[in-house]
Each structure stands twice: as C-alpha cells, then as structure tokens.
C-alpha cells in the first residue's frame, strides 16, 4: 500500500518481527530515508489488546503522523513538534495551564485536555 504525505509517497508495510527485526522493539516505525512506514502484524495472545484491527489502524495513523511531521519540517526544528500539538488545541505545554483531570502524554511535556 502507498500513501501520499505532503507530496512524498511512502510505502506502508504490515510485517512480522521476522520480516522486519526492528519490530522486536516497537509496534511500528517510520523510516524517512527510504520513505517506508512499517506496522507490526499482530497476533492474538493472552497479553494483547482485544481489538487487534483497531490497534493496527492506530499504530499506522501514529506512524503516518511521524511521516507528516518529518515531511513538513516540524520534526527537525527543535520545539516545533510540541508547538504544533499545542496549536492544534488539544494539548498544553505546561501543567499550570491544564485542568487537574488532564492526562499527561508519556515521554513528553504535553497534556491531553478533554
């Protein structure tokens, strides 16, 4: 499958860990050097999420967002990824401006509001 991201064509691959060993460390990844998005081919197991089809779509959307950020130039400019998230209106950059029930986004300084 191919997808056009800001005029750049990326190939989307659903692969097993054996086919793409990087998947041993993550559910998916984006490689901007070869314009490829790789999503794991998930199998049911006692520790997996119930709806693997929805999980696959979520991972794919996440990696497409990474590709968008890379192609737009936001990825390489320090702070711009966080600013873009804040600009979209769903995120806040510091705890002082968010409600007490806001959910923090792991690995970042942002919080999901609402």
**Major β-sheet strand ordering:** 1-2-4-3
Distance between the termini: 34 Å
* Mean pLDDT across every amino acid position: 77
**Which H/E pattern describes the elements?**
EEEEHHEEE
- Helix content bin: 25-40%
Number of strands: 7
Structural class: alpha+beta
Report on the structure:
The chain is α+β, with helices and mostly antiparallel strands and 114 residues long. The chain is 25% helix and 24% strand. It has helices at 52-72, 80-87; strands at residues 2-5, 8-15, 28-31, 36-40, 91-92, 103-104, 111-112. The strands form two sheets. A four-stranded mixed β-sheet has the order 1-2-4-3, covered by helices on one side. It has a three-stranded antiparallel β-sheet with strand order 5-7-6. Strand 3 (28-31) and strand 4 (36-40) form a beta hairpin.
Features:
24% strand, 7 strands, single chain, four-stranded mixed beta sheet
Could you write a compact summary of the structure shown?
Helices cover 25% and strands 24% of the residues.
Helices and strands in order:
Elements: E1 2-5, E2 8-15, E3 28-31, E4 36-40, H1 52-72, H2 80-87, E5 91-92, E6 103-104, E7 111-112
Parallel strand pairs: 2-4
Antiparallel strand pairs: 1-2, 3-4, 5-7, 6-7
């Amino acid at each position: 499958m191919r997808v056009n991201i800001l005029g750049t064509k990326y190939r989307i691959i659903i692969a097993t860990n054996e086919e793409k060993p990087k998947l041993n460390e993550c559910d998916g990844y984006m490689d901007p050097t070869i314009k490829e998005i790789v999503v794991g081919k998930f199998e049911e197991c006692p520790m997996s999420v119930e709806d693997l089809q929805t999980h696959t779509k979520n991972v794919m959307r996440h990696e497409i967002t990474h590709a968008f950020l890379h192609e737009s130039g936001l990825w390489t400019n320090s702070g711009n990824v966080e600013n873009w998230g804040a600009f979209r209106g769903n995120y806040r950059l510091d705890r002082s401006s968010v409600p007490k029930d806001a959910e923090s986004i792991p690995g970042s300084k942002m919080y999901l509001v609402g």
